[in-house]
Fold:
Amino acid sequence: MRLFVELGKSLLLNVFVLLALVLIVLFPRDLTIVDRGAALGIDMQFEYHFQFEEYKENIVGYLETVFIDGSLGESLTGVPVGELLVEYVPRSMLVICTAFILCILFGVLKGIYDYKASLKKTQVPWPGIHFFAAIDSRLFLDHLFAVVGHLLHSLD
Structure:
């Protein structure tokens, strides 16, 4: 029962974050640029006036696009977002799955090494490796792909 409560809390938090991000993206972005008459346009003033009606129109328009039209809208270049998802999600999943597998593999190997090294009197210190790994696990993949890409490019 406690597991379902924790899963419910996590689900509600994720839904809240998703809604907050959607509401931030739909915030009206109409900026007025006023040129005060300077010769080269250096004396410019930016004005922003929030209008709740415009914000409401953005939200209603997005919900109509999603639920009535069955679409996620279009990108700035006019390409439907669904087509972009079909193109880019498999690539992203490949990188994410590769990173996940490599992190598990190297994490288990390092854990085995740390355990065996803790039984010996002399140990090879790993200064900062835990901190480095916790910063960004994608950093390793970025460098790995850069090196492999450079090697493949140099073979041509």
About this structure: The chain has a mean pLDDT of 78. The chain has five helices and two strands.
